[in-house]
Here is the input.
Amino acid sequence: MELEFSGAVWEWRGPSPFYFVTVPEDESAQLEAVSSVVTYGWGMIPVEVTIGSTKWTTSLFPKDALYVVPLKSAIRRAEGIDVNDLVAVHLGVAL
Here is the structure.
């Protein structure tokens, strides 16, 4: 399964800040439909993500009936991404 969407980067402030992009409602529904086949627990879905020229593997987190893509510091630095930036995201989910 391949999905593409755009979203704004947001910061979760906890003991350590984390940065995410929320997967839109339609794409989250598609992910939810296959989640029982691909999740490894707690609703986490392993994916390959591409933003700009950077590609990496991570897991989507379920949040508020949607999914979120975590953005590591190295990814944000490599692509010059900051909070509130709108980014184009490509997700690959192995079924």
